[in-house]
Design a protein that fits this description.
Helices cover 15% and strands 40% of the residues. The chain is mainly beta. The longest helix has 15 residues, at 86-100. The radius of gyration is 14 Å and the shape is globular. The two termini are 14 Å apart.
């Protein structure tokens, strides 16, 4: 990862998952329009924002670890939204790196 990210994830600020995460499987649409199954690893709060961390099998038979914002739709249901802020991407990448180490 390039450079240092200020306000790194404070382990004290990470809360318990807001949803049951054991074996939660859902479908996502990739950038190419393909529908794939994903498995939720955890839901975390970093600097007041809620993120879903999940895995998806890729075309090489290995897995990719992905993350999205968790937001509410108009009916109050959780939805996943692409992370569009570079600082947020860095914070989530650091969290995932720490999770794997």
């Amino acid at each position: 990862m390039d450079g240092h990210v200020d306000n790194m994830v404070d382990k004290q600020t990470i809360k318990e998952p807001a949803v049951e995460t054991e074996n939660q499987i859902f479908k996502i649409q990739t950038e190419t329009g393909e529908i794939k199954e994903a498995e939720l690893i955890t839901v975390v709060f970093i600097d007041g924002k809620k993120y879903a961390i999940y895995i998806v099998e890729n075309d090489q038979g290995t897995i990719d670890i992905l993350a999205s914002y968790v937001r509410k739709d108009d009916e109050g249901y959780d939805i996943l939204v692409d992370i569009d802020n570079e600082d947020d991407k860095k914070k989530v990448a650091e969290f995932i790196s720490d999770l794997l180490s």
